[in-house]
Structure formats: structure tokens, C-alpha cells
Amino acid sequence: METANEWQAMIPLLEIPAEYPRIEQFLLHHSNLPGPRGNLTLADQLAGGFEREAVGPELWDLLRRWADTPAESAPMNHPREYLVFCAVLAMGAHYAGAGPERQREIIDRIRLAMNDPRWRVREAAAMACQRIAERDFAPVRRHFALWYPESSDLEKRGFLAALAHPPILKHPEIAAFSLEISAAILDEIPARERAGRRTAEFKALSKGLGYALSVFVAHLPQEGFAFLKHYAASADPELGRIIRSNLAKSRLAGRYGPLVAEVLAIMPQKTGRK
Predict the structure, then answer these.
(1) What is the DSSP-derived secondary structure letter of residue 123?
(2) Of 70, 126, 144, 201, most Cβ neighbours within 10 A?
(3) DSSP string, 51-66
(4) What are the pLDDT digits (tens) for 200-231?
(5) Which SUPFAM superfamilies does the entry mention (predicted)?
(6) Is residue 246 within 8 Å of residue 210, measured between CB atoms?
(7) Per-domain residue ranges for the chain?
């Protein structure tokens, strides 16, 4: 609460370029990094200040500068990584109020952040998409569909993380789209060679698949459990691991026990990594 009150006093300084170093130092000091969890509350408050049309060129350039900070000078768990996180999230918050040119830049920067080697920056990309989707899902759907054919494993993981957001999944059409993009990802796995399954990027994607599907299914159970049954019959060990991981989540196991049992009954008795 004390940090929140302090930040409220800092907000007017966003309009004074000479005070930007002070804002930066405040964020660094309250980042909670190094540590297991960055200050999400403060980042959210900062982003909220960009949910408007009028973001001047000096302030926009500040976000750009933060977002452009490379991993070499802002490595994982370093306080300066927090500035990158905050910038990407704030850009997502500004999307609805931005003009077309700035919107294109925001989308390009979000996609770049999805591929960042720092997991917190990748999370910022997903959360930025969620900010956009809460206001209007159409841009998120359009860009995910446009990117998908050439998407990297980390981008696919970013799609899942962005979509696994209960406030937007209350809309059945968004939950259905989430299952569609999940199906496209799962369909590619059986043809993947062993070496391709051992990369850090694929492991991040697989981990995302291991929980996101349960979020989608919980919001669209009839279609969702039919979806799980389809993939449960696969002999591919990675698909088996992913499906079992989702079935074990309390949002499914605790609420849909009989349906979970039906899916498990379809699955091969033993699964292992290919």
C-alpha cells in the first residue's frame, strides 16, 4: 500500500521529461528484483497510466528506450529487466488509444518480446495482449492468425499464455478460438523430430500446453472435453504428457471428475518422452 501511494505521487512526473530519471529509479528500487517475483502491482499501475490517447513523444520514447534494453545489460532477475517488463505492458495498455502507426509498432514490439530470452519479458508480451483483448479481441485474433503460419515455438507459447486469461474466456467465441489455435499447435507435435523436442523453446511451449488447455476447456467444457478425447487417443508420448497434465489440474479434476475419467480411459497406459 505504501508503494502504491508513493506511485500516485509520481504519476504527474510522467508529463515532465526532466523527471524521467527519477521515475526510472523509483521503478528499479521497487521492482522486487532480484527475487522470485517482480512487482506486478506496480507494473499494472504504471500500465494503467497509459490507457489513454494522449501519450506524448517524449513519454513514448521513454517506453521505447526501456523496451529496447537488451538482455546483455538487463539480464534475467536484474532490476533493469523490470523496466523492459513495464514498457511492454504499458504499450499494450496504450494500444486502444493509440493511432494506427503506433498500434503497428506496439504489435511488432509485442511479437519481438514473445521471442525474448527472458521469461519475464515473454510474460509481459502475453499480458500486453491480454490488455488489448480485454478492450477488443479482434486485433489479437487477427494478428495471432496472421502470425501463426510462420510462428516460432516461443510465439506459439505466447499465444497460449495470452489466451489463457479468464476475463476474456467468458466469451464462448474466444474460448473456441483458443481451442482452435491449440489444436493447430498439437497437430504439429507428432511430426517433430526428437532433437526438436529437446530445445528450450519447445520445452517452454510444452509447459504452456500443459496448463493452458485446462483453462480453455474449463470455459467451454462440452467442446473442450471432446477436444481432449481426440488427442488422448494419440500414441505420441508428448501429447500424452500434455493431456495428462491438464486433466490433473483442479479446474478440471475437481469440477468434471467423470469427464476426466472418460478421457483417461481412452489414453494409452504408459507415456514417455520421445
Answers:
(1) H
(2) 126
(3) -SS---HHHHHHHHHH
(4) 999 999 999 999 999 999 999 999 999 999 99
(5) ARM repeat (SSF48371)
(6) yes
(7) 1-135, 137-274
